[in-house]
Amino acid sequence: MAKSNKSTAKATKTSKRSRRERRFEPESSANPSLVKALGAAGAVILGAGAYGQLAPSLREGGPISWAPWLLAAGAVATAVSVWIGTSADGAVRVGDAGIAIEKRGVLRMPWHAVKRIALKGAALEISGTNDAGDPLELSVSTRSHPQATAWVVREARRRIPSLVEVPEDVSLAEAREDTGRAIALEAIQVVGKVCAAGGKPITYEPDARICPRCERIYFKDDVPDACACGAAKSEIALGS
Ligand SMILES: [Zn+2]
């Protein structure tokens, strides 16, 4: 009995939910062994070229005539391996705060601002707005971001299922728990926002209620029976 009382007290203390997200670095779409082999070959040729160029000059006869060509070939192989081994795509974040791409800053679309998620060829196209209401289109490649796309679809199906236009039978990578780097997020700044239902401004933090799925913010007395994302009124809690 004492044990259950203790756990109830603990649950009350931690009723403010913690916000988190996962961060995914892009993967190269090139075969990783090819990148490694090319990089290694480049390094060996560079070494041989440098030896041919420098070692003989320390003895007699001057550098070997073809050594500069070896140096150049080694440099090219190394450069190509670096070029195909690094992807131009930015890192992707998925979690409570929505979907974000790190590209010249962070482009973020909260779940409540998503209008549509669809798969076009090898990319997940996410259209909607940013938190300020400006139109935003995010594109996440299934090639350079297999786990990020899998997690976007998994989270979106749970949070905003009616807006996901990705057929169930399409073959995406399975979202694995052990992927991405977990990041703890700060609480939502609710003061200064307006209620998503009545438009009433939130001036006092305890007056705000937040939808745990899409993070729409409501004034405590104006919470609708169901959030626009589909979450029930009972799910919408004292948040931040
Ligand atoms: Zn919602």
Concise overview:
With 240 residues, this protein is an alpha+beta fold. The chain has helices at 2-13, 32-58, 67-85, 146-159, and strands at residues 19-24, 92-95, 98-102, 106-109, 114-120, 123-129, 135-141, 164-165, 181-185, 208-210, 217-219, 237-238. The protein has a five-stranded antiparallel β-sheet with strand order 4-3-2-1-9, covered by helices on one side. The chain has a four-stranded mixed β-sheet with strand order 7-6-5-8, with helices on one face.
Chart the SSEs and their pairings.
Layout: H1 2-13, E1 19-24, H2 32-58, H3 67-85, E2 92-95, E3 98-102, E4 106-109, E5 114-120, E6 123-129, E7 135-141, H4 146-159, E8 164-165, E9 181-185, E10 208-210, E11 217-219, E12 237-238
Parallel strand pairs: 5-8
Antiparallel strand pairs: 1-2, 1-9, 2-3, 3-4, 5-6, 6-7, 10-11, 10-12
Helix pairs in contact: 2-3
This protein binds zinc ion.
Residues 211, 213-214, 216, 227, 229, 231 line the site of zinc ion.
